[in-house]
Structures are given as C-alpha cells and as structure tokens.
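Example 3.2
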Amino acid sequence: MVTMDETRVGLALTDKDAFGTSSPYHDAALLSRLLKEAMGEGGLGRKNPDIPLADIIEPGMSVLLKPNWVLHCNKSGCGMDCMVTHPLFIKAVLKEVFAAKPSRVIIGDAPIQLAEFGELPNLDRLKTSDINSSCPVEIIDFRRCVLDKCGRVDFDRRGLEHYILFDLGHDSLLEPISEPRERFRVTNYDPHALALTHRPGRHQYLLAKEPFEADVIINLPKLKTHKKAGITAAIKNIVGINGNKDYLPHHRIGGSAQGGDCYEGRFFLKRLAESFLDISNSRINRPDYSFWQLCATGSIGLQRAIDLNVKTTIDGSWYGNDTVWRMVLDLNRIAMYGKIDGSMSSTPVRRIYSLTDGIIAGQHNGPLAPEPIHLGAVTFASSSLFADMAHAALMRFDWRKIALLRCGLESDYKYPLVRHAAEELKVCVNGKTHSFAETARLYGNDFIPPDGWKEHIELRG
C-alpha cells in the first residue's frame, strides 16, 4: 500500500459555466478525466498513472463503495442530479475500481426509512454493469428498519447476523451531553428505544458488517448542504453504514433556553408539539399514531398563527445543534478504529478514501430538499475531515463555524480522526497547492446555506 498524506486533497474541475442544458454526467470521457485528475492530484497513480487505484487496491481485494442514496426523490422538486451520488459517477468509479482487479465489489447505503430503495436512479444499470463481467457487484440496502408503502414500519427486514454492535461508552463524544437522561431524539423514531442505547456510560451503534469485512472502503459522497450539520459530504456520508437509525441521536428535546438543542430559545407550543411527537413515535404501527401526529401538527400551526416570524421546525435544523455532529464523528471513529468483533483498536485499522461528486452539488435546504448549483468539482482524499475542509472552501463556508469540522479536526479525544492541524490543509489542483482561503477565493461558489444556518456560516470578506 502507498502511504498517503492525510492533509492533501486532490481537486479536479470542469467549466461549470459551460454545462448548458445537458447533464455533464452523460459525458463519460469528462467523468473519467475528472476522476483521474482528482486522484492524481490527491497523491494516487504512483504505481501506474493509468490505474490510480492500484495504489490502494491490490488484485483480489474486496472493495466497498459507499454512495449517498439518502432518498429516492428530491423534496425541493429540483431533480436528482443534486440529490444523490449520480449513478453515472458511480459507474465511472466502478470502471476505475475494476482496473485494479478486485475480487468483489459491494455498493451499499442506509437511506432514511421511507426511501424506496428500488426507485433510486438507474440502480438496475449498476447491477448489470457492462464495464466488467468477471468481478461481481452486489448492491445492498443496509437498513433493518423501513417504512412500507402502506405506512407501516418493518423493524426487522434484515437479520442481526449482518450487523455489529459497538458501544463507545464513556469515550463517546455524546457522553458530555448525556445528562439529563432521555433527552436524545431522532425524528420519526421511538424515543424510548433511543434511551436504551444512549445514556450515561452507554453509547451503542448497530453498524452493517460489510464495511468491516472489506479490504478497501471508498466513500462516494454527494456534496450538499445539511440542515442539521451544515454540510454533508465525506464525514456525514459515513452515517449510511448504520443499520438502525433509532441508534442515532440527532438532537436533544427542547429549545436552547430549556437545555435542549432542537431550536433556538423557548417556545411553549413547540415544546408541546415535541411531546405529542414523542407519544406518536412511541405508538408506531398502532391505530392512534396518526391522532398524535395531528396534535403535533396542530400545535405547530398555532405557533405559526401567533408569530409568522418564528421558525416552526422541531427537528434540530439550525446552527445550534450540538448533538448530530457528535454522533457523526462517533461513527467515523468506529469506521476507522472498529474491529469485526465490535471492539475498538487503540490505533486505526483502516483508512477511508473519498471520491466526492460535486459536479452538480446541492445547496439551500439539503439533504432532502437541495437545489442544484453547478460547481463542476470532484475531489479525492484519504482523510474525510480534510476533504470536507476543502468542500467547505468550495462552498465558501467558514469551517470554524461548523462543529462537525471544527471539533472533528481536534485531536484531544480518544480515537482521533486526524493527526495533523487544520492549517496544514493542501488543496492540489492543476499541479498547484492552495490553502483553504485560496481555494475559496479561486474555486469556490457562494452556496445558499440551509435556512437555519443563514448569516452564520458564510465566509466574510
């Protein structure tokens, strides 16, 4: 294996102003060029410039590709090019992977529970890829819990033998905010189940086994904004290796003036709506579930009628969310240090490489309702955190105001994700090396932040 520089991020660009009405993803030669350039600028290709992935994939290895397949539709109505890792981008990556002669390739993700996995764009084309017939490609839905078309939740669609249970205990980044107990929440999931897996001294995650069996993991994020985390790309995309989202705290109940981080301040009707949601989410698959959902909706509607200027979201979608980044970093730490038996190594046991699809990126209210922005970028990196520093520069967001990045780049906790300081970032493009500020100025685009993050994370000056 070739030794990689974690501070180095390779960046390849195409002319974003020349896209016109046609999708750049249908230009196979363009995709191939962008991938090879990004990998080359990122430090690959030392063994063979024509097969850059030969530096990290040896013949006969198994490879896991982890795209962003969060949902089968874009709630903004703006199409799927800015929503998920484009299937033709994945296909172009497959071609590069096959050139290194692996013995097995898995493509897997855990979308949200209401996602229709079979309706993801061009999924069948990946299953019957005409790139290479000698290496099998398996496409796996990592979820145990899904919502069927009748509105019922199937809690056990995939057996427990396909998962590994990890418990970070006191080493979890959630531990400092675990008191008072039973305040963690994830929208549309039973709060009582979450209280069993996350409480003082216990922080459990149920993760798909396949990433821990693979020889090489290549993360294939879509570059987007994220209402709860600020941005979603290389770091946030690792959340999709989980099996049960009801093991994943996303926020804490109540407003910031009430000891929570669901929303800013203190609002009686919002807090009442949260209580109704707790009741409904504890009654999933029962006849009175919808009644309690209506009570929550009515409370929010009344809040809106009283004051039109008050944001009515109650899902932690704002810059003060102090929970979701901790969960995301926990999962990344497990992905790097976790062993197949559910224990944690004292040193990293695997590296996660990322090839990020930022050709048509997503802005405004991602991850489920993004709007397209033509960025024309592909990045390669061996560190998810340094990759996302480069992505923040391309979005012209201040990484220091995004807890996911600021706290992830620290190294004063057990199982650190980086060994170098943020200031050592090197974004390499066209044979030149740039700092964060230079990257933002020369190659960035002014992304619209999520509504709850506006006037908070934009770079100034």
